[in-house]
Amino acid sequence: MSSSLPSDPIHLPYKRLFGSPAPVVMVSLFHNHARTETRAYVDSGAWYSVFDADVAARLNIVLQNRAHIWSHGLDGRRVPVYLHRVGLELAGFHVSATVGFSDQMKMGFNLIGRHSIFNQLQFCFNDRDGEITITRLDS
Fold it and tell me: Rounded to two decimals, what is the model's pTM?
């Protein structure tokens, strides 16, 4: 019986987001002794990963207890995004990353962005076949 090595690519089918196929993955987040799962859109154009405030609450994270950055919501307003270090699991790959949480973004979905994740994992988008491939990068 063979098992998948951590550096072996994982192929995942796109999932529907607002009625269209998109690179959406299930992600587990860990903080202290708390763990939660949610869906997130893998966005190579986003610098930070941003999760809704309800995800922070499930991890017992208090938003205002950290430094924040300013981002723009879908309506163009500047909104605070509070940065926290968490553990993430995507497709069986475990990484530690700095991600943001916001109670004001109101995007309707969570984002996996480049900062502190894309230097650990490689994402290959195959829109033709509706598939995302994730590979761990060598240290």
Answer: 0.87
